[in-house]
Specification:
Blueprint lengths: L2 E3 L9 H7 L8 E3 L7 H5 L6 H9 L9 H12 L10 E5 L2 E5 L9 H19 L3 E6 L3 H10 L5 E8 L5 H8 L6 E6 L3 H13 L1 H7 L1 E2 L6 H17 L7 E6 L4 H11 L4 E8 L4 H9 L1 E2 L19 H8 L4 H12 L2 E2 L3 H10 E5 L2 H15 L5 H13 L6 E5 L7 H8 L20 E3 L3 H12 L1
Parallel strand pairs: 4-14, 5-6, 5-8, 6-7, 7-15, 9-10, 9-14, 10-13
Antiparallel strand pairs: 1-2, 3-4, 11-12
Helix pairs in contact: 3-4, 3-10, 4-5, 5-6, 5-10, 6-7, 10-11, 13-15, 16-17, 16-18
The structure holds pyridoxal-5'-phosphate and the ligand N[C@@H](CCOP(=O)(O)O)C(=O)O.
The site of pyridoxal-5'-phosphate has 16 residues, from helix 11.
Enzyme class: lyase
EC number: 4.2.3.1
Organism: Sulfitobacter brevis
Length: about 450
């Protein structure tokens, strides 16, 4: 399996190289050259299998000879052993034909753990045998950072620097990033929003002297391995609802477009997905774009679902690459226009996107109302991101097709929003009960590439 860049001019890489490289050297994102498919029988055979067995079947065709089958099975087993639910991604029913896929039973209580725990294992194995050491820099609106720190803390062959927007993550998210005491972990509070953090991260990748000097690696969904690991739960959920004999739809609370893109990959692999619905909060650039209004940046508004407060949705580039029939030049041109404020999507590409994705948005009031309503009717407490998904799913779903809404974080990560809606303050699991007593360690840094590079170089020295 070979990996190519969405901008068409970076070297073609193996899975291992793409995983350790992060952003392609032409500024693009790596994608598989071809998407492998699974037969109906292979999908049907997943019924009754463990999450780990399904994970092996789904991901194996993408990894080439990076790991032997035994090694890969072992990495998968280790990755999910720390999850707090034996099903890893259990489902609960919310209403007739509407299900919630709980993706928050990992160590940091968000869906990011599914990919990050596996990436941690894969990095360790690949770097260990090469005797290499890398510097991971990540940008986060809250959850990627805590999941990355949890997966890489204390490891010998990585240093981890996480850029988060100062004052724009929840207190639980912040403390998950600032309280680990391992010396290879560095939390950096940037004076800016998530888009600034992600832009500075991409600037670092595009600065080859810095990139090569510190051996920069990325664990944002820039990294194909992140998207790949997220494909698995679409299969476990759909098969448990009757796939491949029955079509299933998914609604995905969306910001950086990694999670819903994983759903698209599942569909391309042969999973019978009827609708893939993009759910945004008030930062609705994706919803507007998918409704044909072009992709034009505005201001980011802080919301009660802060992990989705994003304007520059990184993985949308991967969706555009396929919508433009894998024309890297066209994508490079669009991304250059985005640097100047935005772009319009051609008619053919728009049709291709609309054939694949539907979309909707939830306002702040609708999100709060959904948390309250669902608690009253089902007793379920939703995090605000998941509530955005449930609201949009209810607006859009075909009652005859099972709809699965992805619950992307545990309500206890966003206790203020949940308490405001329901009067109930969700508690953290007992293993995290002292999170608020642990000392914090964080450096405040300007939204400035040179300042960030200097800080990272000094810390590494
Ligand atoms: C809780 C939560 N929900 C939804 C999202 C959006 O996911 P994606 O960025 O993959 O679209 C994020 C951030 O990634 C998140 O942390
Ligand atoms: N919402 C994300 C933003 C980064 O997304 P990623 O999937 O590219 O890592 C977060 O929680 O940090």
């Amino acid at each position: 399996m070979r990996y190519i860049s969405t901008r068409g001019t970076a070297p073609v890489l193996s899975f291992e190289e793409a995983m350790l490289t992060g952003l392609a050297r032409d500024g693009g994102l790596y994608v598989p050259e071809t998407i492998p498919t699974l037969s109906r029988d292979e999908i049907a055979g997943m019924a009754g299998q463990s999450y780990e067995e399904v994970a092996f079947t789904v991901m194996r065709p993408f990894i080439g000879d990076t790991f032997t089958d035994d090694e890969f099975r072992d990495l998968i087993t280790k990755a999910y052993a720390c999850f707090g639910h034996s099903a890893r991604a259990p489902m609960v029913q919310l209403a007739p034909n509407h299900f919630l896929l709980e993706l928050f039973h990992g160590p940091t209580l968000a869906f990011k753990d599914f990919a990050m725990q596996l990436i941690g294992q894969m990095f360790q194995k690949a770097l260990g045998r090469k005797g290499d050491r890398v510097t991971i820099v990540g940008a986060t609106s809250g959850d990627t950072g805590s999941a990355a720190i949890e997966a890489f803390r204390g490891l010998d062959n990585v240093d981890v620097f996480i850029l988060y927007p100062h004052g724009r993550v929840s207190e639980v998210q912040r403390r998950q990033m600032t309280t680990p005491s391992e010396s290879n972990v560095h939390a950096l509070a940037v004076d800016g929003d998530f888009d600034d953090c992600q832009a500075r991260l991409k600037d670092m990748f595009n600065d080859f002297e810095f990139r090569d000097g510190v051996k920069l690696a990325g664990v944002n969904s820039i990294n194909w391995g992140r998207v790949l690991a997220q494909v698995v739960y679409y299969f476990t959920a759909a098969v448990s609802l009757g796939a491949p004999d029955r079509e299933v739809s998914f609604t995905v609370p969306t910001g950086n477009f990694g999670d819903i893109f994983a759903g698209y990959i599942a569909k391309r692999m042969g999973l019978p997905i009827a609708d893939l619905v993009v759910a945004t909060n008030q930062n609705d650039i994706l919803d507007r774009c998918l409704k044909g209004q072009g992709y034009h940046k505005g201001e980011v508004h802080a919301s009660i679902s802060p992990s989705m407060d994003i304007q520059v949705s990184s993985n949308f580039e991967r969706a555009l690459f396929d919508a433009y029939e894998r024309d890297g030049n066209a994508v490079a041109q669009l991304m250059a226009e985005l640097g100047q404020g935005g772009f319009d999507v051609s008619q053919g590409a728009m049709q291709a996107l609309q054939d694949l994705y539907r979309s909707g948005r939830a306002s702040e009031a609708e999100t709060t109302e959904t948390i309250a309503q669902l608690h009253t009717t089902t007793g379920e407490l939703l995090c605000p991101h998941s509530a955005v998904g449930v609201k949009v799913a209810e607006d859009q779903r075909d009652p005859c097709v099972p709809m699965v809404t992805l619950a992307t974080a545990h309500p206890a990560k966003f206790p203020d929003a949940v308490e405001n809606a329901t009067g109930i303050r969700p508690g953290l699991p007992s293993r995290m009960a002292d999170l608020f007593d642990r000392p914090e360690r964080v450096t405040r840094v300007a939204n400035d590439l040179e300042a960030l590079k200097t800080h990272i170089r000094k810390a590494l020295a």
